[in-house]
Design a protein that fits this description.
Elements: E1 4-10, H1 15-28, E2 33-36, H2 40-52, E3 61-63, E4 74-77, E5 88-91, E6 105-111, H3 115-130, E7 134-140, E8 146-148
Parallel strand pairs: 1-6, 1-7, 2-4, 2-5, 3-4, 5-6
Antiparallel strand pairs: 7-8
């Protein structure tokens, strides 16, 4: 059975600001997470951010290709291979990991200030809807947090 596909429209915060919270919420649900980006350098920067985002916070994670990658509750990947048996898939920077059906939830995070990213997100929304998947659209509120719009 296919899971949900949620679109997160960034307007007021950067991915670096919201990703730790998305991952923490996923882990709190008992889910393992796979974060996919098309650029290894981008993932390396996110890896650094996840180690330093908060003084009292820790998100156990690793990069694809490192020893014991499959053991990490959060895995950062370029290939999109679900080595850590993730329950939630987080796609960033236009990444495409193929079939999203095996995941409980797939999250596409896109930059709402980038016209190309916005257009690509619209196309993917349409494609997922046509495929019969349950989709949801989340937009940042002015006061912070997220509000489901569709």
């Amino acid at each position: 059975m296919a899971g949900e596909v949620w679109f997160y429209h960034l307007e007021r915060s950067s991915l670096e600001e919201i990703l730790p919270d998305l991952l923490a919420r996923s882990l709190a649900r008992g889910w393992r997470a796979l974060v996919v980006a098309p650029d290894r350098r981008r993932l390396e920067a996110l890896d650094e951010r996840l180690w330093t985002f908060g003084d009292e916070s820790f998100l156990p994670h690793g990069l694809e290709g490192e020893p014991h990658a499959a053991r990490h509750p959060v895995l950062l990947s370029v290939s999109g291979e679900n080595l850590n048996q993730a329950d939630v898939l987080i796609l960033i920077d236009g990444a495409d990991a193929g079939d999203v059906a095996p995941y409980e939830r797939s999250i596409l995070v896109f930059d709402g200030t980038d016209e190309a990213a916005l257009s690509a997100a619209r196309e993917r929304w349409t494609g997922f809807k046509k495929a019969g998947l349950e989709v949801a659209y989340w937009r940042q509120k002015e006061a912070g947090g997220w509000e489901r719009q569709a």
